[in-house]
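Hi support team,

I've been running sequence recovery on a batch of backbones for a student project. Most finish fine, but this one hangs at about 90% for roughly twenty minutes before it completes. I'm not sure whether the input is malformed or the queue is just slow. I've pasted the structure tokens below so you can try to reproduce it. Let me know if you need the job ID as well.

Thanks,
M.K.
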């Protein structure tokens, strides 16, 4: 094997944060090299350095024979590096082929016309075994397909190293499978893959080696086949965390706090269920099964055409989120970028934003009180930040998610709807969120937990409600949790009557 990419003594400083501290790492040709570490460990900063999106304060990057003290995006791309960032860089209003060919000179040969672009794009898509129409507008594609277009975009430039930053964080399980297959195909072609993910299963499935980072430091590189889940977690978190899913001491009570009857939305959602006091009701289903729509209808984000909602036995007509909050319902939304956080504002502004009424006397906001609450959540959720005033956009992806979680918790709602609450969150912080959920139900609060991670649902829920195409196909009690059974319900196979 030969080294294709090498980093020596890379340091990157931000005000109050050492994002990368003297990091040295090397990558071999044709390997799948995973990079793991807690939220804020410096993973994205590392790959932004390689992609030329940011410049390090010191250190050297060597690609093949060429060494650089910093790169630019075009320099990086000319040297055979392709990067798929945590946030996509596609232009939604352009077609697939326009996106794939955008900014690609093909060795100074510009594209003559649309026809040529389509031909070149089709060629690359075929090589990758993808069935996507080059003329399709990108905004009409699913997240998984957009991800594939990103890959095609790098492959048309003949990249030698393809870097993916949490590529599966928002993919369905079928899309994830496709992506993992694609990684293998590219590896067969001799492409080196740098793969960042918080999902241990997939890292074990596809990687040859794993490098671990913690607090801006490089910790260690291990051979995937010689390590274990437990060792990795320990290397990432720096300590043994014990049980991934902490045991809960309390049981749900009889009292029904939320009842949904025959909820219909714009599609054919037909959903009825009861949520009990102190219960964690899991919601399983494939991506697109209608779980997020249900959450948004209950919370008043989406209009419902039909159906009734009862909160503690009282019928509520919730049309806007403010009415949901007033009824004690909180929502942790799935999409933190669009719905969750105000990126251009500080953490101290984001967390108390929905509880301002409680912290004010109608005229003035009690700053001392809100500051206390902000500090409490920064501590409880271990939000990695130099200060409470830090802008949310400057936080790492996982820490942004924690701010969104904190914002909803701060409303002191006693019915919490959590839509993929641990997406993009590292193992250690996941456990903190699980502990928090246990504390919440111990205080008599109730949680509706939507998750695409079956293990997480089976680890945390008292009951699981399964969705298929906007309908509930079954409820499963904790003592009957069994992955195959739940998967069958999620694929539309109903309980035998
Ligand atoms: N533009 C910026 N300004 C200030 N600080 C930043 C900026 N970008 C990143 N940081 C900080 O650098 C550190 C490393 O962030 P980075 O995004 O690399 O983490 P990560 O390992 O990718 O985490 P995650 O798993 O949450 O995506 C974090 O403490 C983050 O807050
Ligand atoms: Mg990141």
């Amino acid at each position: 094997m030969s080294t294709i990419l090498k980093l020596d003594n890379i340091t990157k400083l931000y005000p109050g944060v050492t994002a990368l501290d003297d990091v040295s790492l090397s990558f071999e040709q044709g390997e799948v090299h995973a990079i793991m570490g807690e939220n804020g460990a410096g993973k994205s900063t590392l790959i932004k350095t390689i992609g030329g999106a940011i410049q390090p304060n010191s250190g050297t990057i060597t690609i093949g024979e060429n060494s650089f003290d910093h790169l630019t995006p075009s320099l990086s791309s000319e040297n055979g590096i392709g990067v798929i960032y945590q946030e996509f860089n596609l232009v939604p209003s352009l077609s697939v082929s326009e996106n794939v060919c955008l900014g690609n000179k093909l060795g100074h040969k510009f594209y003559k016309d649309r026809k040529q672009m389509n031909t070149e794009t089709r060629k690359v898509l075929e090589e990758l075994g993808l069935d996507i129409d080059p003329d399709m507008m990108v905004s009409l594609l699913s997240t998984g397909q957009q991800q594939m277009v990103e890959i095609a975009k790098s492959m048309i430039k003949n990249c030698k190293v393809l870097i993916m930053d949490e590529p599966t964080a928002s993919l369905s399980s079928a899309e994830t499978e496709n992506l993992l297959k694609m990684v293998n195909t590219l590896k067969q072609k001799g492409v080196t893959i740098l793969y960042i993910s918080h999902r241990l299963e997939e890292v074990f499935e596809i990687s040859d080696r794993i490098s671990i980072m913690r607090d801006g430091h490089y910790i260690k590189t291990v051979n995937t086949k010689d390590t274990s889940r437990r060792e990795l977690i320990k290397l990432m978190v720096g300590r043994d965390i014990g049980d991934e899913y902490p045991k809960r001491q309390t049981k749900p009570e009889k009292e029904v706090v939320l009842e949904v009857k025959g909820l219909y939305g714009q599609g054919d959602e037909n959903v009825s269920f009861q949520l009990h006091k102190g219960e964690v009701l899991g919601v399983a289903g494939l991506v697109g099964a209608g779980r997020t729509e249900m959450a948004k209808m209950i919370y008043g984000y989406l209009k419902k055409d039909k159906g009734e909602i009862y909160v503690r036995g009282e019928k509520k007509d919730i049309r806007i989120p403010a009415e949901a909050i007033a009824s004690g319902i909180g929502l942790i939304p799935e999409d933190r970028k669009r719905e969750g956080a105000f990126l251009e504002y500080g953490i101290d502004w984001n967390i108390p934003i929905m509880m301002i009424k409680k912290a004010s006397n109608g005229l003035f906001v009690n700053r001392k009180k809100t500051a206390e609450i902000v500090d409490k959540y920064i501590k409880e959720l271990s939000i990695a930040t130099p200060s409470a005033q830090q802008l949310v956009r400057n936080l790492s992806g996982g820490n942004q998610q924690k701010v969104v979680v904190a914002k909803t918790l701060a409303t002191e709602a006693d019915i919490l709807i959590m839509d993929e609450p641990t997406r993009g969150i590292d193992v250690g912080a996941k456990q903190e969120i699980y502990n928090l959920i246990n504390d919440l139900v111990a205080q008599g609060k109730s949680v509706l937990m939507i998750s695409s991670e079956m293990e997480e649902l089976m680890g945390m829920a008292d009951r699981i409600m399964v969705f298929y195409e906007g309908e509930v196909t079954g409820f499963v009690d904790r003592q009957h949790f069994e992955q195959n059974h739940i998967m069958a319900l999620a694929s539309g196979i109903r309980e035998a009557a």
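--
Follow-up from support: It reproduced on our side and the slowdown came from queue contention, not your input. The chain is about 35% helix and 25% strand. No action needed from you.
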